[in-house]
Amino acid sequence: MFPAKPVSKAVPPSIPALLGRHAQAWVRSLFMALLLIAAFSPSMSSAATADELTDIEQIQQLKARYFRLMDTKQWTQWGEVFTDNATVQATSLIITINWQGKAQIVSQNSTFLALAKTVHHGHMPEITLTSPTTATGIWAMEDRLEFPLVAYHGWGHYHETYEKVNGQWKIKSLVLTRLRERLGTVLTD
């Protein structure tokens, strides 16, 4: 016969013991990350009001119109995204821009892009409301401009200020900075 084993009270394993060493480390890391996010994130420490969220969404819609109306060359409507005294600044391989006022912005841009096919994309907006009627924003961007003989591809950021005029958000200033640019030949249709 076999010797009798001592009877012991079985203790259920703890959750950390069930997870294993690697999973325990992962859970600890996740917990620490959540604590850091809660401690340092402004969005976690102060909740935005419904009006603030609406304003941020309206600014995002404004920028979407900016891109769509420019690429479809709807210049009259495109001009409406700007305040009357707006400014635009940009420097690239092919042009330097320093325009003052909505009328000059629309006139110069529509002339410059008259023969170009364009595609503009804005990504990852960082919008900060600075008052009930002012805000700032930074947008990562990419654009492609195809002129009759030259194609241009650029990457960078829009740095903007916004103003709420008669209940509508508008672009007050726009500074376009470039991280990378490429000139090439035009793609065929």
Query: What structural class should be given to the helix and strand makeup?
Result: alpha+beta
Q: How would the global form be characterised?
A: flat
Count of domains: 1
CATH class bucket = Alpha Beta
Helix-residue proportion = 25-40%
Counted beta strands:
6
Beta-strand proportion:
35-45%
Number of helical elements? 6
Low-pLDDT sequence parts: none
Please write the string of helix (H) and strand (E) elements: HHHHHEEHEEEE
Backbone CA Rg: 27 Å
Averaged pLDDT, please? 86
Strand order of the largest sheet: 2-1-6-5-4-3
According to CATH, the fold-level topology is Nuclear Transport Factor 2, Chain: A
- Distance separating the two termini: 89 Å
CATH architectural grouping: Roll
The main β sheet shows up as: 6 strands, mixed
Q: What does this protein look like?
A:
With 189 residues, this protein is of the alpha+beta class. The protein has one domain: Nuclear Transport Factor 2, Chain: A (Roll), CATH 3.10.450. The protein contains six helices and six strands, in the order H-H-H-H-H-E-E-H-E-E-E-E. The chain has helices spanning 15-19, 21-40, 42-45, 50-71, 75-79, 102-112, and strands at residues 82-91, 96-100, 117-131, 134-146, 151-165, 168-184. Strands 2-1-6-5-4-3 form a six-stranded mixed sheet. Strand 4 and strand 5 form a beta hairpin. The termini are far apart. The model has no long low-confidence stretch (mean pLDDT 86).
Write a short abstract of this structure:
The protein is an alpha+beta fold and 189 residues long. The protein is built from 6 helices and 6 strands, in the order H-H-H-H-H-E-E-H-E-E-E-E.
